[in-house]
Design goal:
4-stranded parallel β-sheet, binds N-carbamoyl-L-aspartate
Length: about 300
C-alpha cells in the first residue's frame, strides 16, 4: 500500500513505489475498460472540472475522456468567458467553484506554481491535478511517458534516455526526469542548443549535451520536444532549417541509437523541425501510443485521488 496521494502537482520527490503503483493501476484500468471500449463506474456521482488557461489538445481531451470513462461528470470551464476575464483573482474563482462542490480540479496555467497555490487555498476536499504550470511540471505527462517506456523496457535502471529540444522551457522534460530518476534510470542525457539548455544544477542527475549525434549514441529511448516559442524571447528562437539540421531526429541520426530505440514526443509535434515525418510515422515511433496511454494514466490518477 502506497501513501495516499491527496493532490498531484509534481513528480519531484514522488517515491518509486507510487510511480510503479500508478503504472500498474493504469495497465489494470486499460484492461478492465477493454482499451477504452467499455465504461467503468468507479467515479459515478463525482465531478471533475477542467480549468485550462492555456491551449491543449491531448491533455484536456484525455482528462475529459478519463473522467467520463470512469463514470464521473465533467465540466469544462471556459476560461475565456469566465469572471477571470473580468479580473476575478484565481483564489476567488477557486472558492466559487468549490462552493458548487467539486471532487477534482485539473488545472493548466502559464504560471509556475499555480497548482501548488491552489492546493494551499482550497477550502474543501477537492483534489488539485496539475495539467502543466509554466515550465515547471507536467506530472501526468511524466507518468504516461513512464508507462509507455515500461511496456517495452521495464528495466529502467539499464536504460539510456536522451531528451532533445527546448529543455529549459519544458515542463515535460522536468517531469520525465523526475519519473525516470525515481525509477532508477542512471543515464539521462539532455540535449539542445546552448540557449535552450537548463543550468546543470537544475538537473544534477543528467548529462547536459549540445551535440545530438553524440547524445543519441546508444540511446534506448529518445524523447523529442517542441520549440516552445511562447516561452522564449525572440532572440532565442532558432532558425527552423538550421535547428532541424542539428537537432532534428531523422533516420540517419536514429541509426546511431540502440537497436529498437523508442521514439517519443509529447506533442504537439512540428514535423521537419524537431522530427522528420518519416521518423514520426515510422515503426519506432510510439507517439500515438503515448496519447492512448495518456487516457489510461489519467484514469489511474483520477481513480487514485478520488476513490481511496
Ligand atoms: C506539452 C505541454 O503542454 O507541456 N504538451 C502536452 O501536454 N502534450 C508539450 C508542448 O506543449 O510542447
Amino acid at each position: 500500500m502506497t501513501a495516499r496521494l491527496r493532490h498531484l502537482t509534481t513528480l519531484e520527490h514522488m517515491p518509486r513505489i507510487t510511480i510503479v503503483h500508478l503504472i500498474k493501476r493504469a495497465i489494470a484500468i486499460r484492461d478492465a475498460c477493454a482499451h477504452g471500449t467499455r465504461k467503468l463506474n468507479t467515479l459515478a456521482g463525482r465531478t471533475v472540472l477542467n480549468l485550462f488557461f492555456e491551449p491543449s489538445t491531448r491533455t484536456r481531451t484525455s482528462f475529459e475522456l478519463a473522467a467520463y470513462r470512469l463514470g464521473a461528470d465533467v465540466v469544462n470551464f471556459d476560461t475565456r468567458w469566465s469572471s477571470t476575464a473580468k479580473g476575478e483573482v484565481l483564489h476567488d474563482t477557486l472558492h466559487t467553484l468549490e462552493a458548487m462542490h467539486l471532487d477534482a480540479i485539473v488545472v493548466r496555467h502559464k504560471n509556475t506554481g499555480i497548482a501548488d497555490e491552489l492546493t494551499r487555498h482550497a477550502m474543501s476536499a477537492v483534489a488539485i491535478i496539475n495539467a502543466g504550470d509554466g515550465h515547471h511540471a507536467h506530472p501526468t505527462q511524466g507518468l504516461l511517458d513512464a508507462l509507455t517506456i515500461y511496456q517495452y523496457r521495464p528495466d529502467f535502471e539499464n536504460l539510456t534516455v536522451t531528451i532533445c529540444g527546448d529543455i529549459c522551457h519544458s515542463r515535460v522534460a522536468r517531469s520525465d526526469v523526475h519519473a525516470l530518476t525515481a525509477l532508477g534510470t542512471k543515464q539521462i542525457r539532455l540535449c539542445g542548443p546552448a540557449t535552450l539548455l537548463p543550468e546543470a544544477f537544475d538537473y544534477p542527475s543528467c548529462q547536459i549535451m549540445e551535440d545530438f549525434d553524440q547524445a543519441i549514441e546508444g540511446a534506448d529511448v529518445t524523447i523529442l520536444l517542441r520549440l516552445q516559442k511562447e516561452r522564449m524571447t525572440a532572440s532565442d528562437v532558432p532558425d527552423k532549417a538550421s535547428y532541424f539540421h542539428r537537432y532534428g531526429l531523422n533516420q540517419k541520426r536514429l541509426a546511431r541509437a540502440a537497436k529498437g530505440c523508442l521514439v517519443m514526443h509529447p506533442g504537439p509535434l512540428n514535423r521537419e523541425i524537431e522530427i522528420a515525418s518519416n521518423v514520426a510515422d515510422g515503426v519506432q515511433s510510439h507517439i500515438l501510443e503515448q496519447v492512448a496511454n495518456g487516457v489510461f494514466m489519467r484514469m489511474a490518477v483520477l481513480d487514485e485521488l478520488l476513490t481511496r
